[in-house]
Amino acid sequence: MGQLFTVVEGGGVTTPKGFKAAGLHCGLKKTNRYDLGAIVCEVPAAAAGVYTTNQFQAAPLKVTRESLGRDGKLQAMVVNSGNANACTGKQGEADAYEMRSAAAAAFGVEEHHVGVTSTGVIGEPLPMEKVRRGLAGLPERLKADGSEDFCQAILTTDLVQKMTCVSVQVGGQTVYIAGAAKGSGMIHPNMATMLGFMTTDAKISTANLQALLSKVTDETFNMITVDGDTSTNDMVVVMASGLAGNGDSAELTPEHPDWAAFQAAFQYVGEYLAKAIARDGEGATKLIEVSVTGAASDEAARAIAKTVIGSSLVKSACFGADANWGRIIAAVGRAGQPVQTETVDIRLGDIVTLEQSRPVRFDEEKAAEYLKGDFVHIHVDLHMGPGQATAWGCDLTYEYVRINAAYRT
Fold first, then answer.
1. Is 193 in the active site?
2. Is residue 282 part of a domain?
3. Active-site hit among 15, 52, 64, 193
4. What's the number of CA atoms in the CB half-sphere (13 Å) around residue 43?
5. Residue 1 domain-assigned?
């Protein structure tokens, strides 16, 4: 089967029909980088969201959940960076609600059709006077090519913007799916500080959109780690304008003949953004991919892959270009999943280091040279069952410590 979708070069969250975006500097950051942004749809869009499992959830998550709970639609998503509005008590909740109402007034939409989210330092109150001024100035900044402005507005310690867009044929009509994300540190989602925003012009119900987002999140955003910390503010939201019309066919459902293509395209966007976050981990020099096959189940494979990718010892070994497979098998063994200890294989790229749980002689210099690259693939085969999963992360460097030792200063 050929490629089911096409990557749209230069596309972003405003490529799907009906969307505009904006970004500006309102003074939350000390630099002049944008720190307030919005995605706005021409019509109330079917919407879905997934949120952090951290028990301390930031006020904006409560507000966005409430908005989505009304009728499953959003028309505007507003985000600020530089301040998380987390652990800020009743005042933080009031500020998040005020952000929602002010944005609704600014964009001329229903209040419950606005979602809000924040990212940045925890425990500091939002300087609402700056936020109010910024929200009032966003409508005039909205534009059909505002994807990059929005991407800049959501960054904190990120070094690069993260966005992608694909097109897929549904009912003979071109449908677009796009996404933008931020995240560099405090990354270990179950749903870290990670925010994701997806847009599409497909005609799809809120229920089917939610089911698809939850599935894709489990296989992409929830399979990355930078430092093992899950934030108070993690959120991924998707908005579907329906303006592509899906040709002459009915709305997208799992029974639709083009559902598989749409799902593959949606999955690609989630995976692209997730890997971009892992690659941009604070201080990172390389992307690490861990593939686990032969596990008792997919769930077991996911747990093992995330344990390996989250191991500080494995991450440090990759940074130091040390082919220390012992750290990998130790992580496999402590993942809390069934393992046959006599049947494990481990590869670094195409270099076999362990076969049937026995060491294999390999060229240390060749392995070190491989580990010095900007991409490292670790493959673990358990030879037990059909379960498989892939997780992504990055190496642990001196720079990570430097960045986080002075995060508030």
1. yes
2. no
3. 193
4. 14
5. no
